[in-house]
Design goal:
Distance between the termini: 46 Å
Number of helices: 9
Helix content: 55-70%
Shape: globular
Length: 188
């Protein structure tokens, strides 16, 4: 069984599962969005006493809390029990491109150690990527009225124009970050 679970699956399986989940959510009158779970957690721990934004019945969205909890537990299980310790397989072109961006030894670990280590956190590059990036993600999520999964999966399946605009903005921002900002930051 572990062999079946740990092998790469065809991309269409994910697509079918997304369709099934979205059909169920539409049928049940619910919306999908991971970023809104933070609001539910804040409401559940009692922040509604101090801020009206968190003052609502969070139990109506308990299914989303289970989803987030399951995602965390599933990620932990996958990273420990199903983790293949072999280096990831990158194309030669990708390896060369990452070296041009000052990432040493690309593909030798599951993630670039130059970027994801305690030592790198306390560098200018680390502060920009983690603190600045985290702030921009949080601000952008609230400003856009949801995260990428909420808009791209749930909003587009509901044919919402604001979600289409948000998704186009996500792609433009991602392209600008990848091709303009990231090379500048990684070469600091």
């Amino acid at each position: 069984m572990i062999d079946i679970i740990s092998q790469p699956w065809h991309w269409a399986i994910s697509g079918v599962m997304i369709v099934v989940v979205m059909a169920l959510l539409l049928f049940l009158g619910q919306r999908f969005g991971v970023s809104s779970s933070f609001r539910h957690v804040c409401s559940a721990v009692g922040f509604g006493k101090n801020a009206s934004y968190f003052d609502y019945n969070w139990k109506d969205h308990l299914w989303l809390m289970y989803f987030i909890f399951g995602s965390i537990v599933g990620g932990a299980i996958a990273s420990t029990l199903l983790n293949d310790q072999e280096p990831i397989q990158l194309s030669l072109a990708t390896i060369e491109h990452l070296k041009e961006l000052n990432i040493s030894h690309p593909g030798e670990a599951q993630y670039p150690i130059d970027l994801f280590s305690i030592e790198s956190l306390f560098t200018i590059k680390g502060i920009i990527l983690f603190i600045g990036g985290g702030f921009l993600i949080g601000f952008g999520t609230r400003y856009a009225g949801g995260c990428t999964s909420g808009h791209a999966i749930s909003g587009l399946s509901n044919l919402q124009l604001p979600s289409l605009v948000a998704v186009i903005g996500f792609f433009i921002g991602g392209l600008l970050t990848t091709h303009v900002l990231l090379p500048i930051i990684l070469n600091l």
